[in-house]
Design goal:
single chain, alpha+beta, 7-stranded mixed barrel, 7 helices
Length: about 280
């Protein structure tokens, strides 16, 4: 794993330097889109609507549009925000772990101690374990101010970003307002059904059947020879379009340059003519 961020957990006068790692990864097979008639790759291009050119990420800024006006925010503008420059995971309170609704969990990160002595790290981890508390933290990552839950997972401190309160929707369905009568017999049978499925959760015994079947399908088609050269699926159209735009500009400049060079050339013979006559006269 590669650290995506470095900072420090701070609470009171305690400072715990840490490295942050993504705790999860996507196992889905990566698929792209192709034209059903010829298998050509379908591309999504970042094309400027003014000049028509395809733009590299390094030349793309962000903007806010209120419907009438647009405010462009450069990378320097965003980097100037105080929260973005912060490298602290600031503990704001310790709460009972059961009070955090799982719907608020967003992304998960592992924290590794980033110092020669990991005593402060071990102390915080042990304290959270023994008090059954979760630290609510405030931090900034990837141009966003975030709320997080700092908790223990095995021997590691884990940081889980939380959704803000106004990002969690309220569920309100008219059907739930209706009173429903449940008989004792129905509840008894329902409990019995639940009991028949009771087990301890072991995530390793579950697998993604769709991805497994997709891999089998791909392998079967490869074995059958039902495939084309990947190079053939990459058409030259995107590059050609960009080249056409650059070529037109190059041609325009070439024509202008050529005209500029020809203009003095027409005047040149007129200036030299008298000199030739003078030479003949001298002869």
């Amino acid at each position: 794993m590669r650290a995506i961020w470095k900072g420090a957990i701070t609470f009171g006068l305690v400072n715990v330097p840490v490295k942050v790692y993504s705790a999860t990864e996507d196992h889905d097979i990566s698929l792209h889109q192709v034209h059903d008639k010829d298998g050509g790759r379908i591309r999504y291009q970042r094309r400027c609507e003014i000049c028509g050119k395809i733009i590299d990420y390094e030349h793309i800024d962000k903007a806010f549009d209120d419907g009438e006006r647009t405010v462009v925010l450069t990378k320097d503008d965003l980097a100037s925000l105080p929260e973005e420059r912060s490298r602290e995971i600031d503990v704001v309170e310790f709460v009972p772990s059961e009070q955090i609704d799982p719907i608020m969990f967003d992304r998960s990160y592992f924290l590794e101690p980033d110092s020669k002595s990991n005593k402060a790290y071990a102390l915080l981890r042990r304290t959270l374990e023994e008090t059954d508390r979760t630290a609510i933290v405030h931090f900034a990552l990837r141009q966003k101010t975030r709320l997080g839950a700092l908790r223990v997972r095995g021997d590691v401190l884990m940081l889980q970003s939380l959704l803000w309160d106004d990002e969690v929707r309220e569920a309100s369905f008219p059907a739930l307002d209706e009173r429903v009568r449940l008989s004792a017999k129905e509840l008894e049978m329902s409990h019995a059904l639940v009991a028949s499925f009771e087990s301890d959760f072991a995530p390793g015994k579950f697998s993604d059947d769709y991805q497994d079947e997709l891999r089998q399908l791909i392998e079967a088609k490869l074995k059958k020879g039902d495939a084309v050269s990947t190079e053939e699926t990459f058409g030259e159209q995107p590059e050609k379009e960009a080249e056409v735009l650059d070529l037109m500009e190059a041609l325009r400049r070439s024509v202008d340059s050529s005209r500029a060079k020809k203009s003095p050339a027409k005047k040149s013979p007129a200036k030299k003519a008298p000199a030739k006559k003078s030479a003949k006269a001298a002869g």
